[in-house]
Amino acid sequence: MGVHVVFSKVAEKTSERLSAIKSSIATPGLHSLTRPQITAPVPVRKILPAYDRKMFFKHLRTRFPRYQEHFQNAAEKYNLPWKLLASQAYQESHWNRRAKSPTGVRGIMMLTRRTAASLGIRNRLDPEKSIYGGARFLARMQQRIPTSVPMPDRRFFALAAYNVGLGHMEDARELAQRIKKNPDHWQDMTEVLPLLSQKKYYRTLRYGKARGHEPVIYVRRIRAYQVLFDQVPSENSYVTKRNKNGNMKASISQRFLRPHLNRLERNSGA
After folding, report:
1. Given 76, 92, 170, 214, the catalytic residue
2. Where does the Transglycosylase SLT domain lie (predicted)?
3. Mean pLDDT across the chain
């Protein structure tokens, strides 16, 4: 009798867990039923060299605290994952608000002058404006990706468009169809985008030549940084207090976070 009761309770709990898992899975659209969408694990060590991982954890302690609130608020406003947005910013500028490149992009989100103007931003070096502008621009790219592209690939397409331009992404999707690749799946597009630098392909496309390998690397590194973010316990706050001048500064909880980050640095091979 006792064994039967125990077995019943175990079966009941198992059934509840299965029901919870089933309900947490979104009902796939017709497109995804033809080919299940599988997101492969991100091989962080292969994507990010040891030095890059070490510097990420260092900047997580020293730079990120003053900007976390902006990333969280901007991501919430534009319906984006805040760690993804912060990871993108790290790939762009290493959270350096004064960052600039020889091509003229500047600020934490490395906005071009033209993009900043379209977003109503005059000072690209203002970290808050840059973060909100970058989030708005990324959300805009995501909205313009065809609805046939499912999540999470839709977000990867948007990141790639942020980097290489929406026009070149449209070219890559057209080329994918020509060579019998799936234009709605990011994994296929990682093989197609690099072809935009080859004359036999880009001369037949509307927007011409592009360094198509760059958005592939760009998205890959952003995803790897997000994995590192996710390794840090959520119960620890990275930041968030203001000093007397109203500026963001690291909170005392950083003292409790530091040993964990040091351990992650060692485990990541940094």
Report:
1. 92
2. 71-181
3. 82
